[in-house]
Amino acid sequence: MKDVTQLTEGWSLRHGDALLPARVPGCVHTDLLAAQVIEDPFTGLGEKEVEWVGRRAWTYVRRLAHDSAHERTDLVFDGLDTAASLTLGGRPLGTTRNMHRRYRFDVTGLDGDLEVRFASAYDEAAAVRAVTGERPNVYPEPSQYIRKMACNFGWDWGPTLVTAGIWRPVRLEHWSTARISRVRPLVTVDGTTGRVEIRLDVERTRQGQDRTLTAEARVAGVRAEAVLTGDETVLRLDLPDVRLWWPRGYGEQPLYDLDITLGDDTGPLDTWHRRIGFRTVELDRSPDEHGTGFTLVVNGVRIFARGANWIPDDAFPSRVTPERYRTRLTQAAEANIDLVRVWGGGIYEDDAFYDACDELGLMVWQDFLFACSAYPEEQPLRGEVEAEARDNVVRLMPHPSLVLWNGNNENLWGFRDWDWEPALAGDSWGEGYYLGLLPRVVAELDPTRPYTAGSPWSGSWDHHPNDPAHGTHHSWEVWNRQDYAEYRASVPRFVAEFGWQAPPALATLRRALPGEELAPDSPGMLHHQKAEDGNGKLNRGVARHFPLPDGDFDRWHYLTQLVQARAVAAGIEHWRSHWPVCAGTVVWQLNDCWPVTSWAAIDGDGRTKPLYHELKRVYADRLLTLQPTADGLVLAAVNQSAEPWHTTVTLRRLEADGTTLLEGTLDVAAAARSVVRLAVPGALTPDERSGKEFLVADASGSAGAGGGEELRALHFPVPDKDFAHPAPRYDVALEPVPGQRDRVDVVVSARTLVRDLLLQADRLGPAAACDSGPLTLLPGERARFRVTGCGPVDPQDVRAALFCVDVV
Ligand code: BMA
Questions:
Q1: What DSSP string runs through 124-151?
Q2: For residue 426, how many other CB atoms are within 10 A of its CB?
Q3: Closest CA to 638 of 611, 685, 601, 678
Q4: C-beta neighbour count of 447 within 10 angstroms
């Protein structure tokens, strides 16, 4: 039987004449940090101080003594970052130049000092560029010449920290006769029968060449067997009455153990195990009267995808543990997100990521790793791209959560719109990957899954790649140049990216910028803001609605976070109300990789921004929203649940002081997974010239499963700065929860209209969190904020942690 030794311990990093203790998996930066050679590049301006690290070559060493009775010993790396040459006992083992591949070296009979020498990624990229020639890139860095996480070279939310190291596990595998070298389970459903077709490849030792091998596969008590005289076989299993895997909100996520054993007449030689799930997935790209659709269909059910874009959760991805993946993805699920897009400037994530998605029912859209630049298609890159695609398609295809492969991020768009064409002058730029190589690899290895060539992509060159009427669309004009109300100007078929920036939580800023007197343009704040004119866009976004606070950092922080939440909510409410023409929104972005002002809903320390709580509301199965349109105000009831939704909506046209001008009702009957749009009667529509009228819509007592929830929609026809807000007044009461020292309920009673009242829990303690985002209260209404992780709190501190719109 194969025998595996993990090589986690015993590594050193050579630094000058010193040998520093090294962590594997890890990277140079984290080793230098642990040895106190550098300071934390995530704090202050520290990133600048460590620029030299990425410019140098680095060597990892370890003594390798092994003694095995087996015929073969392989040294297996799950990830090397990136350009390395390896020697063992002074003998060359080989070279690598791709962070995204696994590598295996035959080290049978060898031992001594194992050395892994990494060249600077800059030197490797320069050497490749000398062969392929220059290509355009959105960023002034050479990410397109090296198969390495692109955002490692810096992004508009990420630091430039160019790593090197053994970033994923490494081990010795001792084996005799034969081992399982590749398993491709093709999992489908036919009626009520689950079908698994397993394509199995083996590798034999020299001694094992002529041996007869047996392979056995088992799922839930069903077995299949095959005899191998060559190096490959197919095993087929049928499971009657199989339980289907569903995205969250549509059903359960049953997972089945798939076990494979390879053996010969001496007994088992090797085993393989994964959990699989039974579901079908299609991507409906049919033309219709609106253009070309882009709708995911799982188990025959058409889905509006409630998505978020995922970036590497740490600028040093080797630090992301399975527990951290689980925490972050659970946060996503709790925000009613049902799809995460693994963005192409990052990595193919660890299996722990996809395991968590399988269990949580989060659909995964996986980009191939190309982002925002033109990529040469010549050697040595072409071979690397193919090898990497094959490796990762096979690694990830057992996961039922994986529903879509995507060729690249923004490169088809970039070619068309970003002046690449003249600069390229006929050179290759990656099109051959996205429209040729990658779809071929997917069709060959993983034919049960859909592939799309890019995001955005209209489906062909007949339409502009970012045409909202065809396929996927990235909506960036609004954040870059307009008010968030402009999201309502179009109904794309699928919004794969759109977003709005905001700074992280205050506690995150205080930790990342120790000693800094915080101001929007203080040195650390500016350093931790990487977007082009980021603060300008933030400020203009605020100024369209509020007087821009001058010299009041706390108010600026509150308002920028509030506008972020409102902006993204405005987009999602509008686009969801146009289902099924629009079939998904993937907000940019769920998470961060360090403490930074960015589009993220969850900041670099894992704290949630108000946007996170708004996502929970606007991505809930049922959403009530008031939509201003050219034909007047529309009440839209979005019902993504499996049950019909019948409710009576009370509409109240109110004045700022709480006076009711007119009240009326609308009956809503929304079938399962559908949207109803109803015109708001003219008499109930607030007069925008008054500057003090607004509309409240309350749905109550919803019939059917999950019914009973009270949902509210609000519509203020003028920007806050033009609205006759009363001076906000409210009472605050603290209700300790008996027996729970670390929790307090903050009950706020409004005496006036109180708009977007937010409790910034992290002001009560770095570990404190609140269950709610901004809430608007009418005079006389009460709200309860649940705070956990806070310890005993002082009522004064709670008051100081409460913010609301205050533009009298
Ligand atoms: C999108 C992404 C990223 C970028 C984001 C914000 O285009 O694909 O490249 O971080 O915009 O600018």
A1: HHHHHHHHH----BSSSS-GGGSBS-GG
A2: 6
A3: 678
A4: 12
Instruction: Pull the structure tokens for residue 367.
Output: 């980009």
755 Ramachandran zone, left/alpha/beta (phi>0; psi -120 to 50): beta
Question: How far away, in angstroms, is 74 Cα from ligand 1 center?
Answer: 40
The order of strands in the sheet holding 674-679 is: 622-629, 632-639, 674-679
Q: Which helix (H) or strand (E) holds 308?
A: strand 305-310
- For tokens 């060449």, what's the residue? 209
Distance (angstroms) between ligand 1 centre and the Cα of 590 equals 12
DSSP characters over 364-383: EEEE-S-BSB----STTHHH
| Residues with a known catalytic role | 410
Model pLDDT for residues 393-422, shown as the tens digit of each residue: 999 999 999 999 999 999 999 999 999 988
The DSSP-derived string for 15-50 is ETTEEEE--SS--HHHHHHHTTSS--TTSTTHHHHT
Locate 172 and state its tokens. 């010795």
Q: Which residues in 671-807 belong to E strands, given as ranges? A: 674-679, 693-700, 711-715, 730-737, 740-750, 754-759, 769-770, 775-777, 782-788, 802-803
Atom 12 of ligand 1, nearest CA residue:
156
With CA atoms as reference, report the closest residue to 364 among 288, 441, 281. Answer: 281
- Token representation of residue 439: 């779809």
Please state the rounded mean pLDDT for residues 474-501: 98
Please, what is the average pLDDT of the chain? 97
Q: Quick check: pTM over 0.70?
A: yes
Ligand 1 atom 9 nearest Cα: 372
Task: Give dist(CA 217, CA 116) in Å, integer.
Answer: 37
- Give the closest residue (by CA) to ligand 1 atom 7: 410
**Predicted local distance difference test score (pLDDT) of residue 614:** 98
Q: How far is the CA of 431 from the centre of ligand 1 (A)?
A: 20
**Atom 8 (ligand 1): residue with closest C-alpha?**
409
Find the residues whose C-beta lies inside 6 A of ligand 1.
Answer: 155-157, 371-372, 409-410, 474, 497, 588
Cα-to-centroid distance, 698 and ligand 1 (Å) = 37
Contact 253, 171 (CB under 8 A): no
Provide the phi-psi class of 128: left if phi over 0, else alpha when psi is between -120 and 50, else beta. Answer: alpha
What does the alpha-carbon distance between residue 343 and residue 589 come to, in Å, rounded to a whole number? 10
Distance CA 518, CA 658 (A): 37
203 pLDDT above the threshold of 60: yes
Instruction: Inform me whether the pLDDT recorded for 565 exceeds 50.
Output: yes
Burial of 354 per CB tally in 10 Å (0-12, 13-18, 19+): buried
Predicted local confidence at residue 705, as pLDDT: 42
Buried b (16+ CB within 10 A) or exposed e, 671-696: eebebbeeebeeebbbeeeeebbbbb
pLDDT, tens digit (0-9, with 9 covering 90-100), for 7-31: 999 999 999 999 999 999 999 999 9
- Cα 515 to chain center, whole Å? 32
Distance between the two ends of the chain, CA-based, in angstroms?
A: 77
Q: At what angle do helices 553-576 and 610-618 cross, to 10 degrees?
A: 20
pLDDT, tens only, 134-179: 999 999 999 999 999 999 999 999 999 999 999 999 999 999 999 9
Closest-CA residue, ligand 1 atom 6, reads 156
Q: Report the residue among 342, 497, 532 best suited for mutation to probe ligand 1: largest number of ligand atoms under 8 A from its CB.
A: 497
Reference 28, options 70, 58, 62, 65; nearest CA is 58
Residue 299 CA to residue 451 CA, distance in Å, equals 17
Ligand 1 centroid–CA 52 distance in Å is: 27
